[in-house]
UniProtKB/TrEMBL annotation:
<dbReference type="InterPro" id="IPR042215">
    <property type="entry name" value="CarD-like_C"/>
</dbReference>
<dbReference type="InterPro" id="IPR003711">
    <property type="entry name" value="CarD-like/TRCF_RID"/>
</dbReference>
<feature type="domain" description="CarD-like/TRCF RNAP-interacting">
    <location>
        <begin position="1"/>
        <end position="110"/>
    </location>
</feature>
<protein>
    <submittedName>
        <fullName>CarD family transcriptional regulator</fullName>
    </submittedName>
</protein>
<dbReference type="InterPro" id="IPR048792">
    <property type="entry name" value="CarD_C"/>
</dbReference>
<dbReference type="InterPro" id="IPR052531">
    <property type="entry name" value="CarD-like_regulator"/>
</dbReference>
<dbReference type="Pfam" id="PF21095">
    <property type="entry name" value="CarD_C"/>
</dbReference>
Length: 156
């Protein structure tokens, strides 16, 4: 994976490193961007002029990540009682790519897990939120996926 480009986060895909693609054999009239994603070792190619549609953002700073991780320490104020609605809300928060919202999902689902009330479908949502956040942590702190997941899970 290239280490010299801007570090970015792509909602629904996770964090990666961006680089410019000089020649595109399929479309000579457009400039393309390549993002080497950490999750699943995927290269995502997108036209430079459509990058806003993917809602690509820069990764946050170490200080901002530490603040976001502090959210996980707290108990939730209120958790939606209806499983289906909670599931959709949590999925929407993860898809937003907002680090704070992803930490809120992890906090809420850790709390349900601690109380013994985490359904199997939400275990998948929890894992998805953890790896999305971990991918950004990997780039920010330059650590492995295992260390990033450990950093998340040991916050409490």
């Amino acid at each position: 994976m290239p280490n010299n480009g801007p570090k970015v986060f792509v909602p629904k895909y996770g964090a990666g490193v961006m680089s410019e693609v000089e020649d595109n054999e399929y479309d000579k009239n457009r400039k393309y961007i390549s993002i080497c994603l950490l999750l699943n070792n995927i290269n995502l190619y997108m036209p430079e002029d459509n990058i806003q549609e993917y809602e690509v953002r820069s990764v946050i700073t170490k200080e901002e990540m530490e603040e976001a991780l502090n959210i996980i320490k707290n108990n939730p104020n209120e958790i939606e009682k209806k499983w289906g609605k909670r599931y959709r809300n949590n999925n929407d928060k993860i898809k937003s790519g907002n680090t704070i919202k992803i930490c809120e999902v992890i906090r809420d689902l850790y709390y349900l897990k601690l109380m013994g009330n985490l359904p199997p479908g939400e275990r998948k949502i929890l894992y998805k939120a953890e790896i999305m956040l971990a991918s950004e942590i990997m780039l920010i702190f330059d650590i492995s996926m295992e260390d990033a997941l450990s950093k998340i899970r040991n916050v409490r």
